[in-house]
Structures are given as structure tokens and as C-alpha cells.
Amino acid sequence: MKNHNKYPNLFSPIKIGSLTLPNRVIMGSMHTGLEEEKGGFVKLAKFYAERVKGGAALIVTGGISPNMSGVTAWGGSRITRVWHARKHEKITEAVHNEGGRIIMQILHAGRYAYTPFAVAPSAIKSPISKFKPRALSSRGVKRTIKSFVRAAQLAQIAGYDGVEVMGSEGYLINEFIASETNKRTDEWGGSFENRTRFPLEIVEQIRDVTGPNFVIMYRLSMLDLVHGGSSWDEVEMLAKSIEKAGANVINTGIGWHEARIPTIATMVPRGGFAFVTKRLMGKLGIPLITTNRFNDPENCEQALADKCADMISMARPFLADPFIMKKSELGVPEQINTCIACNQACLDHVFKQKIASCLVNPRACEEDAWPEAESGLSMGQRGEKVAVIGAGPAGMSCASELANLGFEVDLFEKADSLGGQFNVAKKIPGKEEFHSTIRYFSNRLSRLNVNIKLSCEVDAEMLIAGGYSNIVLASGVLPRRWKIPGSDRDEVVDYLQVLKGEVEVGDNVAIIGAGGIGFDVADFITHDADDAGFLESWGIDEQMEERGGLAQPMRTVSKRKVHLLQRSPGKPGAKLGKTTGWIHRVTLRDRGVKMLSGIEYVKLDDSGLHCIHENKGEFVLPVDNVIVCAGQVPFAPLKDELEKRGVKVSIIGGALNASGLDAQRAIREGLALATELAV
Ligand code: FAD
Ligand code: NAP
Ligand code: SF4
């Protein structure tokens, strides 16, 4: 592989313990759900091996519990027996055969264990779990340390190059360290020295039994983002002690899971927490890894050049593109399928006990199920010509996969650019990453020689004259019309008119529909309130003078009075992503947006929008504008016309079914149809 030297820091070798790595990026730990699936280790082996082929120098596995009480959820993966280790051998062999390195993360969930068997230093329930943990006895603490050590020994037996000791994100080790969650009065609680004895014993004893060449990475919570978290002095003291105890490298942990501050979602600026690791640079003799919202070689290179860390950890970007490092090294970053930090198919799946996938890369965790992303066929090789109508996510995905599988492809788009609704989505503050997906597909389509015909609203005549073997309709959706007395008045507009800048709404606005788009529109029209930067607005103390790094959030109320309404009862936006919905709700609440559910819309007239609330009865909202975000309906007018003339069409994305549509489904359907047509 040729190094184009675009990223000299990123591609300079580094030594951690006994390993010399060719680049400065590790693939961070990600639980995929395959760990618990029957036959999942075979799939995991393929998943990891693919990422090694793509240039990942060192991989950290998803968290594996050292005992029963430490599993994150019932049936969660643990390593306590030699036969458990044997299952892991499939992974280590596959990775080593490709020339890669892999370490196993040991994670004890502590009070976050979603089971009645959860344990913790003290019996204090976490705000995000329904289970109150049992406080470990002094003997229980010692037994737990032994189980960490045994897990490391078993990892060594399984052929791992080392272990990562998970000491952050509010899991068991972190709970020992923070005085808020550790109220013990024995030698494991009280003073800082006592509270940190637990992780130090773990590291020391692992080093003793695994010998000098086994890598020990320690994930250190450098910014807890919870009340009563560690002070910076404590973080620094612990880092030094961890090094002394035998760790070879320290990875950064940002924020406990219960912290009410976004740490990896798309609104977090790229590399936005690198300043934390930077504070520790120069204080230790072992390398430091920084993390959170790194997703492209440019921002990794910059962080290394700025001496924020010795190495970078990226996790989700390897789901989105297994070949991210290879493409970086080859100097073609424009070909990277960039992680947009949406969490929709990875973390949100895992929280629902589903196998992780990726919105922009449906092949992730299903490496066996689909044709290779680079099939090696050239366009037209099959001698069949396909028309794809619509270049939204579904159409771009299908057209590029068809060309990848040897079809000759004409892609028609009536707008003057590729992207479909993503061109509107990317205008939402904090969703700028959606640009990257359009850029990725544009490059892929060109590379695969797809004939892209922009500003071309295709009709049935053109398609029939084209002599296509298959016609794919990916023509998307139309906003659903809202019908009540007065809904035809001038002040009623739809979300597209607002987001495309075709109308400027007034100061009093009602939004009809509190789905994903209703929330996005509310964010868009109240953005005047977001005058502080990310750290200030979410209350993160950059100077880390306060424990846990918390400061007073700096939010102002929008000058617009916005009501976000929905008819169904319950929490507005309940269907938003599990890991991101709360962020949208907090943001809008702090900007003064009123969110109301259980609303019946009665009429719109000169006095405003007349509604009935399920409990509070009738009321009128004086409004300058009503923005309709009431979902969508499929848009596939060509279907009937073509079918009437005996032409068979395949339909994908919103054109097929607008209910429950999102970009994940659209992109996946594009890949699935192309694969089907190639059979
Ligand atoms: P579309 O994206 O609608 O694309 C259809 C394309 O077909 C359009 O470009 C259209 O111009 C073209 N077309 C139609 N007729 C013709 C014709 N006759 N000839 C040529 N071209 C034609 N989804 C998520 O998963 N996560 C999000 O966070 C998210 N945020 C969003 C935010 C906003 C503000 C919006 C509007 C949408 C968001 N979505 C999100 C939804 C997501 O964008 C859609 O689910 C997705 O774009 C649907 O893809 P599609 O290809 O089926 O349709
Ligand atoms: P949606 O999530 O289905 O929401 C539609 C909203 O309109 C609902 O709140 C619904 O609530 C209301 N509604 C439906 N029919 C109505 C009617 N006849 N009259 C009045 N109100 C009506 O759809 P969307 O907001 O348009 O989003 C489209 C897709 O994009 C979704 O699948 C979504 O997942 C995706 N998206 C995701 C995100 C994200 O952040 N993950 C962001 C944007 C979009 P009531 O029926 O209760 O009134
Ligand atoms: Fe990134 Fe979204 Fe894919 Fe998760 S689903 S890896 S956040 S692009």
C-alpha cells in the first residue's frame, strides 16, 4: 500500500508495550450483539478480519464481562471458562491471519447491569436503570478483582494480544472511583487512595499473571460529566498510578452513560473532546489515546499534529467504512463512507437488543450476506441496462450497487444535485454530516461510471425508449397534506418550503407533527437561541475546575414562540432514537419550545389555531405560521403508467412505502434490490 503522505502523523508507527503498530488509529470497542448470537463468533471473526484488511492496526473487542454479575444485560457475553476462551480463538486467528492485532475489552457493568444481579461498591441505583445494585462485600470486591484477572488470563489463552480494562463510562470501576457512587467505609472506599485501589489492584494483578509482553490498555474516565465525578487532579494522579501498576497505554473515556450531555451524537463537533486528553499529554511515559467524534483522517491528523494525543480511537467509523484507514493511506479520503454519528443503526439497535448495523453501510455485521463492496466487475459487463429514477439515498445506493455488480446504469434525478431529502436534512444545525453521505455516493457513482442525468424529470416515454432490462423507481415521497377547516390559508406552509428557504416564518409558529422532521424543523427555526458554542451550551467546563467537568449550561430562549404538536398521547418524539431523542427534547425545551401531545386540531382562522387538549380542553394558539410536518406519502406516479403499458418496475425507499421510512431502510433496500437483480 502506498503512503501518499497526506497524513504524516497518522501513518507514523508507534510502539505500545510489545507491539509496534503501523498507524496511530485503534478501532475502539463496540458491542455488536453478535457476541451473544448463536454462531455469532464466526460472523465476528469475519467482521474484524474485514477491518484489518481495511487498515485497522489494533482492534479492541466489544466489552466482555469477567463474571455473571457484570454482564450488561441478561445473557450478555462473559469469559470465565476455558471453553469460553476457545470460542474467541476464531476471532484472534482471523485477525492474526490478516496481520492485525486485537485486544479484548473486560467490562464489568456494575450498577448499569440490566439484571437483578447487578452489584456496585454501594447500593445506589443509577438513574438510567430500574435495578438497584447490591453492595459488594469486602470479600466480593476481592473476588471481583480475581475475576478480572482470570478474564485477562483467558484472553491470553484465546490468543488476544492484550486486554483493555474498561474503567470509564460509569461502569463498575468508575463507580468505585467516584465518591458519589462509592460510600464504602472499608479499604475500598473513603479516601481517593482507597477508592482507586480497585482499578490499581486489577491492573497490577493482570500484569503479574500475564507477563511483560501482554498489552494492558486502561480506559480512564477523564471527564465524568456527572455531579461528584473525579476532579482533574484525581484524573492525573490515577493516570500516573495506572502507568506504575503496569498499563502500556491509556485510552480516554468521556462521560458516564447517565450524563445528560451528548458525547458522541452528530451535534458534537468532530474531535470535540480532544482537549481533555491533551491536558494529560507530557505527564506520562506511556502513549495516550483520544476519542469521541473522530470520523475522518483530516481531523485525526490535526489532533495528532496539535499534540492532543499520541493515538486516536475511532469505533463507529469502522462500521461505516471498514476500509477507512486504507483509503486514508492511499490518499483518497473522498472515497470514505463517513460515519454521520446518527446512532440509528448501531447504538440504537444494540439498546433494543438487535444486531448492530450501520445506516450508511448495511453490510456492517453482515459481511457474509452481501456481495463484496468492490466486486471487481466493470460497468456494463453483464450486458444489461438498468434505469434508476431518483437520486435520494435509495436511488444512489441502488445505482452504485448495480454498477458494482456489472450492470450499465442510468441514474435520473429531476433536481440539479444528488442526495434527495438528504439535501434538506443537511441544513438542520448539527446534521451537517449528512453532506458526507452525498459526497461518498457522488464519488462512488462516478468511480463506477454510472451515467448520472441531473435536472432530468424522466417520464414513461423516455424510459420505454431507453431499452432497459429493469426500471427502478426510487422517486421518494411527498409531504402529507394537512386537512382541517382553514388549512388552505396562506400562513400554512410545509417543512420543505421552510427548510429550502422559500418562506420566512413569523415569530409565533405552530408545528403540526412531532416526528423526526417536526423536531428538526423546530431546531431549525429556533437556532437564534444557540448563541454559545457546544461546550458552553451543554455546560462542559473546559478548564475542568469543577468535579466531573460540569459547568452551568449557557442556553437562551428563542425569540420565536414555537409550539410543537402531536395528536397521539405520551411523550412528544417518543419514536426518536433511544440514544438521541433526549438530546433533541432537552435542546428544544431550553430554547422555550412548548411540546404538546394529545392535541386535536379543530380549525385555523384569524384568531389562530384552535385546538382541544385531551386534559386541558379548548385553547387557541395565535400563530403567524403553521408548519406542517405530518409525515409523508409515497411518490411513484410513473408506476401506474409504466405498468399500464406492460413495463415491470421495481420500487424502493419512500416511493415504495413512506410509513416508517428512514434513510437506513432506503439505503438497505437499494443494496437488497441490486443484489436480487444480479442473481
Ligand atoms: P428521497 O430522498 O425523497 O429521494 C427521491 C428522489 O427522487 C428525489 O431527489 C427526487 O427529486 C427524485 N425524483 C422524484 N421523481 C423523479 C422523476 N420523475 N425523475 C427523476 N427524479 C425524480 N432519515 C434518517 O434516517 N435520519 C435522519 O436523521 C433524517 N433526517 C431527516 C431530516 C429532514 C429534514 C428530512 C426532510 C428527512 C430526514 N430523513 C432522515 C429522512 C430521509 O432523508 C429519507 O428517509 C430518505 O431520504 C428517503 O430516501 P428515498 O431515496 O426513498 O427518497
Ligand atoms: P414521522 O416520524 O412519522 O412523524 C410524523 C408526525 O406527523 C407524527 O408526529 C404524527 O403524529 C403526525 N401526523 C401523521 N399524520 C398526520 C395527520 N394526518 N395530521 C396531522 N398530523 C399527522 O415522520 P417525519 O417526521 O415526517 O419523518 C420522516 C422519517 O424521517 C421518519 O421515519 C424519521 O424516522 C426520519 N427522520 C429521522 C430523524 C432522526 O433524527 N432520527 C430526523 C428526521 C427524520 P400524530 O399522528 O400523533 O399527530
Ligand atoms: Fe455511524 Fe450512524 Fe452508521 Fe452508527 S449507524 S456507524 S452512527 S453512520
Describe the structure.
It is built from 22 helices and 27 strands. With 679 residues, it is α/β, with parallel strands linked by helices. The chain has three domains: 24-351, Alpha-Beta Barrel (TIM Barrel), CATH 3.20.20.70; 385-478 and 633-678, NAD(P)-binding Rossmann-like Domain (Rossmann fold); 481-630, FAD/NAD(P)-binding domain. The strands form seven sheets. An eight-stranded parallel barrel has the order 3-4-5-8-9-10-11-12, surrounded by five helices. The chain has a five-stranded parallel sheet with strand order 15-14-13-16-27, with helices on both faces. The chain has a five-stranded parallel sheet with strand order 18-25-19-20-21. Helix 8 links the parallel strand 10 (249-254) and strand 11. Helix 1 runs parallel beside helix 2, helix 13 runs parallel beside helix 15 (434-447) and helix 18 runs parallel beside helix 20. It binds flavin-adenine dinucleotide, NADP nicotinamide-adenine-dinucleotide phosphate (NAP) and iron/sulfur cluster. NADP nicotinamide-adenine-dinucleotide phosphate binds at residues 344, 480, 482, 512-518, 520, 566-568, 575-577, 629-632, 660-662.
